[in-house]
Prior knowledge:
Layout: H1 2-6, H2 11-22, H3 29-34, H4 43-61, H5 67-92, H6 97-125, H7 129-156, H8 167-171, E1 176-180, E2 189-194, E3 197-203, E4 209-213, E5 227-229, E6 232-234, E7 241-243, E8 249-251, E9 260-266, E10 269-274, H9 276-282
Antiparallel strand pairs: 1-10, 2-3, 3-4, 4-9, 5-6, 6-7, 7-8, 9-10
Amino acid sequence: MDWVERSAGADRLLDMVTRAIKRLPLGRGRDALHGRWLGHPVHPALVQVPVGAWTSAAVLDLVPGQRKAAGTLIAVGLAGAGPAALAGWIDWAELHRQQQRVGLVHAAANTAAVVLYCGSLVARIRGQNVRGVTLGFAGLSVAGVGSAIGGHLAYRQAAGANHAEQVPHLVGAGWHDIGAAADFPVGEAVRRAINAVPVLVVRESEQAVHVIAEQCSHLGGPLSEGVIEHGCVRCPWHGSLFRMSDGWNLQGPATAPQPSFETKIASGRLHARLRQAAVERSSTPAA
């Protein structure tokens, strides 16, 4: 997988596929496929349908008299593979290049599994049970490889993870001095740090100042380099839109909001503290 991450041989293909996916006229459906409504990517949940159905089919293939039921489960898995793949491609188009390289191999393995299961289903319909079972187990093996690669993508490369989750655990409770209030011009994005954690400061008016975590929850993009528009900030990397007043993600691909801070100006100094919900979450002891 490390070799795949470094290999640039298919980068032109990646660019072509990325452009094609981003041109799809999905409208609000794009955020739905990202899983913004769910709070995390929806692709892993959708994958449970084909993987679960195909695993169950393999078990039934080992039980006498259950070949018809196994064939039904293979068909269910094939039907569920389409929506899962679509959600996966939509997420894939918004990843870093190294993640896209691994994701392409992940998709290739899953495509091969679908082809094998299609062959298995056709063989079963034709009464070629031995061939159907053989292709089914081959499909499950290839799908297992694809799942392992997906695990590398999710857990090693952190694709789909909330890249701002650690902020409440690092900042700590209480008020923190960010700097002189005069250092924050109205309407401008300013990058500061609280306990070495980058934060974005935007002064809306003389007394209204908004502070949120500076690294985008999607893939850690620098929000201080983004565009401030109508009380929101748009990430310069992949276009996620966050409301400055509370960090809420209004548009994807980000599926998690930004940690946000309460602010006050005292004696000419700007102070900020995590909102109460974040503080409670960060102080919960581990099980």
